[in-house]
Write a structure and sequence with these properties.
With about 450 residues, the protein is an alpha/beta fold. The chain contains 18 helices and 14 strands. Strands 3-2-1-4-5-6 form a six-stranded parallel beta sheet, sandwiched between helices. Helix 18 links the parallel strand 13 (about 430-435) and strand 14. Helix 1 (about 10-20) packs across helix 3 (about 55-60) and helix 9 packs parallel to helix 12 (about 290-315). The chain is globular and about 75 Å long. The termini are far apart. The model has no long low-confidence stretch (mean pLDDT about 95). Bound molecules: uridine-5'-diphosphate-xylopyranose and adenosine-5'-diphosphate.
């Protein structure tokens, strides 16, 4: 078997590395139009940080895993082509701010159609609006000279930071196909790939539309749990209940379950917001405004939570942060990743920069360039002043030195073990700490002398 994957990103790279690892007889080629990214995949410094990824890439690269920019060549050679390109929220035209931008997917389909010959299985790996497979199939068959295509949906459920463990031992693998004999046969071929390491009863086969929709719904349900507990965190603050205790108490009900009930400054990541917006757009499109409004509230609550946190910082600091140094610890959207897409940290930092605070940002894995890009550093602010109010530090103690407040915005393990006495000693007083991830012992911090606040406690 020869597999090609178009798109060497956070999904395509780790997923194909795992397939190469578990299926030594399969040749896996990951292609991307971004030559810099491909060069990084072929170097000692992979473009993404993911625990366990380096080892697997090192063991398989050059053996049966290849990274290349030769897209056409890889398509021609492949029996199965995974499409794993980005599908961001549209920023222009119809559906702007909500619908998925499918231009990258369509370009891929046209490219596949123009060079492919014989029989090919095309697998949707990217998260897509329900019924995209239909458009994909139409574009493929309208532009091909004689090739035969079967389109499958195989959404990826890995979470960043635990991607390799999720891929190695998934709760389930979902494969959607057309119910025709050819469709079912194509699905079986893909089942045989995963069955090389995933127990057969964890591989679910459904029709195409159920598979496409399940991915959006899974993310919507997960995000909804976070928005629900975040909504309750505000009520906890008003009533002196402790959200961690409430979360623990309700999570012990096996019908509710304990996972994804951690109150935070707000969820981030490339998927949750994008997929819910996409779901909302689909509901509106199909004439279901009540369903659309129901899911949209999950995003609104998340936006409110991020804003509520920034407002709490400003109001606690005597209603002004102008000219004050504030240390921001954590910029990634969660621990164990260098990904910052939709990170709550970006929104909180922007709010504080708007309030004219001076930020000192530290993150163990996110590059300075990325932080500057996300905060539009170097660009001119609305009032005409150059935006130089953010410095990036390589050390959390330097970030906190002479600061009025420390903000914990990503739950990196190393933040739990910081020497808080040392941080306190170096800060201006009163020294504030706002734990946006509820990872610190607030009582101990208060014992040192901090004005310490968590979320919902
Ligand atoms: C998510 C889904 O979990 C995954 O199945 C899908 O394939 C892609 O989207 P990911 O975005 O990588 O994965 O990370 P996830 O662990 O789901 O966290 C998303 C955000 O929610 C993070 O910002 C995280 O910090 C936050 N979160 C998570 C909470 O605030 N509280 C929780 O209890 C759990
Ligand atoms: P994800 O998190 O879904 O993996 P990324 O943005 O990390 O998303 O990765 C998507 C990758 O797809 C990018 O590296 C991008 O360059 C690549 N890509 C987009 N369009 C094409 C295309 N037509 N051909 C090849 N690669 C593409």
């Amino acid at each position: 078997m020869n597999i090609c994957c178009i798109g060497a990103g956070y999904v395509g790279g780790p997923t194909m590395a795992m397939i190469a690892r578990k299926c030594p007889d399969t040749k896996v080629t990951v292609v991307d139009i971004n030559a810099k990214r491909v060069a990084q995949w072929n170097s000692d410094h992979l473009p993404i940080f993911e625990p366990g990824l380096d080892e697997i890439v090192r063991a398989t690269r050059g053996r049966n895993l290849f990274f290349s920019t030769e897209v056409d060549e890889a398509i021609v050679a492949a029996d199965m082509i995974f499409v794993s390109v980005n599908t961001p929220t549209k920023t222009y035209g119809m559906g702007a701010g909500r619908a998925a931008d499918l231009k990258f997917i369509e370009l891929c389909a046209r490219r596949i159609a123009s060079v492919a010959t014989g029989r090919k299985i095309v697998v949707e790996k990217s998260t897509l609006p329900v019924r995209t497979a239909e458009s994909l199939k139409t574009v493929l068959s309208a532009n091909s000279s004689g090739a035969e295509f079967q389109v499958l949906s195989n959404p990826e459920f890995l979470a960043e930071g635990t991607a390799m463990a999720d891929l190695e031992s998934p709760d389930r693998v979902l494969i959607g196909s057309e119910s025709t004999p050819e469709g079912i046969k194509a699905a079986e071929t893909l089942v045989s790939v995963y069955a090389q390491w995933v127990p057969r009863d964890r591989i679910i086969t459904t029709n195409l539309w159920s598979s496409e929709l399940s991915k959006l719904v899974a993310n919507a349900f997960l995000a909804q749990r976070i928005s629900s507990i975040n909504a309750i965190s505000a009520l906890c603050e008003a009533t002196e209940a402790d959200v961690a205790e409430v979360s623990f108490a309700i999570g012990r009900d096996s019908r509710i379950g304990s996972k994804f009930l951690k109150a935070s400054v707000g969820f981030g990541g490339s998927c949750f917001q994008k997929d819910i917006l996409n779901l909302v757009y689909l509901c509106d499109h199909f004439g279901l405004p009540e369903v659309a409004a129901y899911w949209e509230q999950v995003i609104r609550m998340n936006d409110w939570q991020k804003r509520r946190y920034s407002q709490q910082v400003v109001s606690s600091l005597f209603n002004t942060v102008a000219g004050k140094k504030i240390a921001v610890l954590g910029f990634a959207f969660k621990k164990d990743t260098n990904d910052t897409r939709e990170s709550a940290s970006i929104y909180v930092c922007r709010d504080l920069v708007d309030e004219q605070a001076n930020l000192a940002v530290y993150d163990p894995k996110v590059s300075e360039n990325q932080i500057r890009k996300d905060l539009n550093q170097g660009e001119v602010l609305v009032d005409g002043r150059p935006n130089t109010s953010v410095v990036i530090e390589q050390d959390p103690y330097a970030a906190a030195k002479d600061a009025h407040a420390v903000l914990i915005l990503t739950e990196w393990d190393e933040f739990r073990d910081l020497d808080f006495q040392r941080i306190f000693d170096g800060m201006l007083k009163p020294a504030f700490i706002f734990d946006g991830r509820n990872i610190l012992d607030l009582k101990a911090l208060r014992g040192i002398g901090f004005e310490a606040r968590g979320i919902g406690r």
